[in-house]
Design a protein that fits this description.
101 residues; alpha+beta; Rhinovirus 14, subunit 4; three-stranded mixed sheet; 4 helices
Length: 101
């Protein structure tokens, strides 16, 4: 196999084509670090609404739990869903009714 750096010097000739050529070498597999990439495998994702699906992930886990997915997210469903954390929405509504009265 020919040394890629020798090809780089020979073919570019200093005309500014170095970066595209380096990209070409990386794509062709000449320039790549070995054993640094995580394993890519299929992971089961479970939503709080009950929907589950599989995605590709580099996560070491085999299952992921999420709170909102595309089946229950308001952007995709067209409805509104209030995600209440620690009862903050209810506290706000109580204060709002006190101010109106």
């Amino acid at each position: 196999m020919t040394d890629p750096w020798a090809i780089l010097v020979r073919t570019t000739g200093g005309n500014g084509a170095v970066l595209p050529f380096l990209r070409f070498l990386r794509i062709m597999g000449f320039i790549m670090r070995k054993d640094i990439h995580p394993s890519y495998h299929e992971v089961k994702v479970s939503c709080a609404c009950g929907n589950s699906f599989a995605v590709g992930s580099a996560s070491p886990k085999d299952e992921l739990a999420i709170e909102i997915c595309s089946h229950c997210h308001p952007f995709y469903t067209g409805g509104s869903k209030i995600v209440d954390t620690a009862g903050r929405v209810e506290k706000f509504r109580q204060r709002l009714t006190k101010k109106k009265a």
